[in-house]
Amino acid sequence: MTHSHLTPKVSADIAVKHLRSIVGESYVLTGSADLKTWGTDWTKVYEPKPMCIVLPLTTTDVSKILAYCHDNELAVTPSGGRTGLCAGAVASDGEVVLSLSRMSQILNVDSTGLTITAEAGVATEALQDAAKKVGLFFPLDLASKGSCQIGGNIATNAGGVKLIKYGGTREQVLGIEVVLANGSILDMNVALRKNNSGYDLKHLFIGSEGTLGIVTKAVLRLMPKPRNLQLAIMAVATFENIPKILTECSLAAISVTAFEFFTQVAHKIVLARFAGARTPFAVISPFYVLVEIEQPGSEPEMESLLEKLFDAGLITDATIAANSAQFREFWGLRENITESLAAHGQVRKNDISLAIDQLDPFVKELEKLLGRIITTEAASTVASAAVDALELVLFGHIGDGNLHINYVSPKERNPKEFQAAARLIEEEIFKLLTKFKGSISAEHGIGLTKKKDLHFTRTAEEVAWMRQTKKMWDPKGILNPGKIFDL
Ligand code: 2HG
Ligand code: ZN
Questions:
Q1: What gap in Å lies between CA 15 and CA 222, rounded to an integer?
Q2: Do 75 and 145 share a structural domain?
Q3: Are residues 58 and 136 in the same domain?
Q4: Among 43, 83, 85, which residue has the most ligand 1 atoms within 8 Å of its CB, making it the best to mutate?
Q5: Which of 404, 426, 441 to mutate to test the pocket of ligand 1 (most atoms within 8 A of CB)?
Q6: How many A from CA of 338 to the centre of ligand 2?
Q7: With a 6 A CB cut-off, is 338 part of the ligand 1 pocket?
Q8: How many angstroms separate the CA atoms of 329 and 110, rounded?
Q9: Which atom of ligand 1 is nearest to the CA of 341?
Q10: How far is CA 153 from CA 220, 291, 397, 412, 469, in A?
Q11: pLDDT at position 381
Q12: What's the CA-to-centroid distance between 397 and ligand 2, angstroms?
C-alpha cells in the first residue's frame, strides 16, 4: 500500500549505510523479525514492511537522521511503544522507522516546581515510578503504561483512566523539544506554568501523530499524591443510571479520580479469558461502573455515596475494595478487557466520545438502530444476519464521555466477512455521532485506520487547515505519510 508520493533519491542499501554512520552499526536493524516487530502496532491488520529500524541515542542523532531522510525523500515513521490501536505507528510502505526507545533517560525531577523532564522513549510507568520515588504523582495512566512511551503519548495526546480528574496528555505537557522534518531542532522545552507570549506552538505537535515533527524531550507536570484512594465496583441495571451516578458524585463534592464502565458481555469475557479474574458479584448485571475517589478526611465518603445511590435506585449492588490486592483485582476487571477480547476472537474497535448529556440519548438511538439492547450477547431482530452475529462489547471512560465499542466474532469467522459486517454498523454509528456532535476518535487518534472517517467529526474546512498546516511544517511530506489524511 503506497501512502506517499516520495521518490527516494538513494537505494535502501545506501540509506542503511548512511544511517549506520550516524547511530552506529548495530543500531540500524534490517532483519526480517525486527522489521516485523517494529513495523507494526497493536492494530495488527497491516502488513509491516519498513526499510529499516533506526535507534538514535540523542536529539542530534534524530536531527541528522531527519536531515538525511529529508534530503533524500525517505519516508519516516516515528515509533514509541507501538501500543496504538489505529495504525499510527505502522510502517507498511518501505519507511525508515525511527524508534525513540534508546532515548530513555529521566533528566530531572523537580519537587518544588512539580515537573519531570524526560526523553521521549521513557515508558509512562517509569515516569509514574520516578514521581512516586520522591513522594509525588504523575497522573497519566493507561492500561498499556508498561509498554507505551511518553513520546507516543504526546504524539497521540493519549487519554487514559485518570483524564476525568487530571486531564489527558496535553494537560500534563509544559514544554517539548521537537525535531522538524528537515532536521532542525525546535526547542520549546520550557518548564513554565504560565507563558502567554504569542502562539503556543507545542500544542500543534501534541496529538499530531508524528506527522509534523518528532518529539524528543518533554517537561511534564507532577502533582501531590492523591490521598486515600477508595475504589468501588457497582452493578447497574440500566445505562441511563450511569450519568446520574456521576451527577451524584459531583453534587456530593466528591473528588472522582476515575469513572469507568463496562457491560456484562465485557465482564463475562474477562472472567472467561483472563487468568485469575474473579467477580465480586453473585448475580451478573447489565452494567458495571468502577468509581475511584479520593477520600482525604475521616468521612467515609464512598460508603455515604453508595448508600445514596442505593436509596435512589441507581445501583443494585456494590463492593468497596477492602485492600490493595482487591483494588488491583477490581481495576483488572476493567483494564484487562482489551487483552481478554484479543484472546476471545476477532475484534474491530471504535473509540468514540460524546458530551455527557448526550450519552444516554445516543445509546437509546444506538439500540434502536441495532434492534437490540447493547448488553445482550446475541441479536435476533436486525435484518442482517451477518451483523446479528457480532458481539458488541462496550466499555470505557464513561465519566469523560469516552465509549469504546468493540465488535467481536469468533476467530473461525471469515475475517473479510467479519470486517464488512462490523463496518456496516460502524458507519451507522458514525452517522449517528455526527448528529450528536460526537467524535469518532476520543483518545486513540486517526492513524491509517480512521482517516476515511475523519469527515464524520471534522468539517471540510478544518481538514483543509490541517492539510495546510502539514504542508507548512513538512512540505515534502516525509513524516509519517498516510496518517490522519492523505496529502
Ligand atoms: C482502554 O481504555 C484502551 O482500555 C483500549 O483505550 C480500548 O481496546 C479498546 O478498545
Ligand atoms: Zn481507553
A1: 41
A2: no
A3: no
A4: 85
A5: 404
A6: 9
A7: yes
A8: 33
A9: 8
A10: 12, 24, 17, 34, 21
A11: 42
A12: 6
> Which residue's CA lies nearest to atom 8 of ligand 1?
338
pLDDT score, position 2: 65
Q: Is 119 within the bounds of a domain?
A: yes
Whether 356 is in a domain gets the answer yes
Instruction: Report how far residue 371's alpha carbon sits from residue 385's, in angstroms, rounded to the nearest whole number.
Output: 12
Atom of ligand 1 nearest to the CA of 397: 2
Residue 188 belongs to domain spanning: 106-224
pLDDT tens column, 60-111: 999 999 999 999 999 999 999 999 999 999 999 999 999 999 999 999 999 9
Closest to 355 measured CA to CA, from 399, 392, 314, 292: 399
CATH of the domain at 137: 3.30.465.10
Count structural domains, the chain: 4
Name residue 409's beta-bridge partners: 346
E strand intervals along 50-184: 52-54, 76-79, 96-99, 106-110, 115-119, 136-137, 173-179
Contact status, residue 173 vs residue 154, Cβ threshold 8 Å: yes
- pTM of this prediction? 0.95
Average pLDDT, the chain: 95
Task: Give the domain CATH number at 246.
Answer: 3.30.70.2190
Angle at which helix 337-344 crosses helix 264-273, to 10 degrees, equals: 70
